[in-house]
Amino acid sequence: MQCVNVELKERRYPIYIGEHLLTDSSVYPLKSGDKVMIVTNETIAPLYLETVANTLKRIGCQVDHVLLKDGEKYKTLDSLNQIFTALLQQNHGRDTTLIALGGGVIGDVAGYAAASYQRGIKFIQIPTTLLSQVDSSVGGKTAVNHELGKNMIGAFYQPITVIIDTTTLNTLPKREVNAGLAEVIKYGAILDYPFFEWLERHIDNLVALNQQDLQYCIARCCQIKADVVAHDETEKGERALLNLGHTFGHAIETHLGYGNWLHGEAVAAGSMMAAALSEKLGDLTHTDVARLEKLFARANLPTFSPDGMQPEDYLPHMMRDKKVLAGKLRLVLLKTLGQAYVTTDSDPTLVLEAIRACTQAD
Amino acid sequence: MQCVNVELKERRYPIYIGEHLLTDSSVYPLKSGDKVMIVTNETIAPLYLETVANTLKRIGCQVDHVLLKDGEKYKTLDSLNQIFTALLQQNHGRDTTLIALGGGVIGDVAGYAAASYQRGIKFIQIPTTLLSQVDSSVGGKTAVNHELGKNMIGAFYQPITVIIDTTTLNTLPKREVNAGLAEVIKYGAILDYPFFEWLERHIDNLVALNQQDLQYCIARCCQIKADVVAHDETEKGERALLNLGHTFGHAIETHLGYGNWLHGEAVAAGSMMAAALSEKLGDLTHTDVARLEKLFARANLPTFSPDGMQPEDYLPHMMRDKKVLAGKLRLVLLKTLGQAYVTTDSDPTLVLEAIRACTQAD
């Protein structure tokens, strides 16, 4: 088992990473008599709900659960309200603990519910997808979507513990494992060139779910993100680097409708657009761009704009992104592989050319 | 003009209290070019929306507004979503400022919207009711109701400035002025005996809206609450004292349905129940209880349980209160006038007797 400690101004919490942690009662910060509400979805429940509930009952907790529908389109205020209703119907007070068991959607909705229920209750995350293990389990970003924009409603709210059982990845669809690898590759590209090289050597093992490499990889990603977040809890500066490819990616997700491309897939294509722009600005070499593209491709990820989406379709969506400040597009670009920066004065013509460079002719 | 500074761990903000502040551009912490969204309701808008908007336009701000329906029953996730929709439709980014113009409901909903929109934007409060001026403008509690419980969903979120224009009380229904005085009297009863005595001398002036006494009174209440909140931002200890009468009061509001009794009216009757219990415990004298009752009565406030509500109707509602910890009822009681304390081991039989003492025979 590996442990990464996230150190924040007001609090610290551990991320445990290992095999078969769902049944390891020693990693749960709970005691006999504690009330717990598990939030999960209809896909995860048959796989892991009973396992987790039994571990908690062994500790002596009183365990309730609420099942959300599976999918990004249920990341809504309505699902949030479903959690509040369950908490109130089962008389959960301010001293209860909410457990998110599932992927990023469950983590985001349950985390925001924990932040909001009676103005804040304790929260434990058990992410079961690679994406949520390397991304949303660190940083305290919680949110639901609004019909006019993704992640527009939420809070910064930290869990008390994150429990990552890497064996849960064995039941995850391959396409989602790959989408998670998009964020993994992103960490190497923006902040850690040695890790980028490690990925070039181990990406096939990760795709094949080698447990040892997975644990190293997840711990490394959590550590990178934890370091960034510790410096910048509410995303004023350095944390923005983590959004490489995300502004382009959100445009893709919004244009196609949530859930047609996976988030990681949109981030992969979006990162290639950021890389193309970085090359046009004379920072990345053509070889760098090709190395990044190859890594994404080996993880079976898209490196081009979706079929039928025109370069002109991007900017209106991008201008509505949360990262827009005072009407200025804020993009994360690469100086070199392993070193990203944020800019607010990109030339819209160049941005369009970079998108075009990642658009395949019909 | 009076100014009370609220000093919190991470930040401080001023509360300005005076006549005609709505049109005083110097109290708004905004500059030319800032985007602003005013949240108000259909009752307040015809009275003050244009006044505030014009002041902001004089500063050079870009001003939008959103109108909610008036009333506690609109303190919902739906109203919250209406604010998000307006913000997104008008392309408000993370750097926008939300202004709550109205009473406690507007402040609570808009404050929670500000806490949640893009995970937090700047927030200014302009409370236009006495209750919101002395209570919800300090402390950062924001919330909406759930059909199973009041204020169950929310956040702790601080404004950057509070602007209290006491002349707005001239358009407030008398019944609401009186309801605000319930919270004013509460401050004296729990923490400030000299202020309690001041109220015994000036309550008639306050009922008559004497501007000078109102300003002193509001500033004093804000200062008392600011001191309490500074010690206890997230309501773990001392802050609970502010809830004198509230657990009984919430039971009344829930039983009657939101909005039949005003919050302050329920707090007045609830405070008398707490006082009756304190007398039964041998802390308050009969004279103390009578002085408290007289002060409420001079402000035309109810000091008895609503007609038709039975003493037995209270406990089920009270046990669902946010202040319940580990299944234990947590009540604020009085040692003497001006000194409150919190207890979690009240005898249910005595609680019922206290409620009965405040119930009029049919």
From TrEMBL, chains A, B:
Main location: cytoplasm
Pfam families named in the record: DHQ_synthase (PF01761), DHQS_C (PF24621)
Binding site for Zn(2+): 183, 246, 263
All copies of domain 3-dehydroquinate synthase C-terminal, residue ranges: 180-324
InterPro entries: Dehydroquinate_synthase (IPR050071), DHQ_synth_AroB (IPR016037), DHQ_synth_fam (IPR030963), DHQS/DOIS_N (IPR030960), DHQS_C (IPR056179)
Domain 3-dehydroquinate synthase N-terminal: 66-178
GO MF annotations in UniProt: 3-dehydroquinate synthase activity
Cofactor(s) named in the record: NAD(+); Co(2+); Zn(2+)
EC number: 4.2.3.4
Keywords: Amino-acid biosynthesis, Aromatic amino acid biosynthesis, Cobalt, Cytoplasm, Lyase, Metal-binding, NAD, Nucleotide-binding, Zinc
Pathway the protein takes part in: Metabolic intermediate biosynthesis; chorismate biosynthesis; chorismate from D-erythrose 4-phosphate and phosphoenolpyruvate: step 2/7
Keyword field contains Lyase: yes
Binding site for NAD(+): 70-75, 104-108, 128-129, 141, 150, 168-171
Catalytic activity, reaction form: 7-phospho-2-dehydro-3-deoxy-D-arabino-heptonate = 3-dehydroquinate + phosphate
Cofactor note: Binds 1 divalent metal cation per subunit. Can use either Co(2+) or Zn(2+).
Subcellular location: Cytoplasm
Gene3D superfamilies: 3.40.50.1970, Dehydroquinate synthase-like - alpha domain
Function according to Swiss-Prot or TrEMBL: Catalyzes the conversion of 3-deoxy-D-arabino-heptulosonate 7-phosphate (DAHP) to dehydroquinate (DHQ).
Family note: Belongs to the sugar phosphate cyclases superfamily. Dehydroquinate synthase family.
Protein name (database record): 3-dehydroquinate synthase
Originating organism: Exercitatus varius
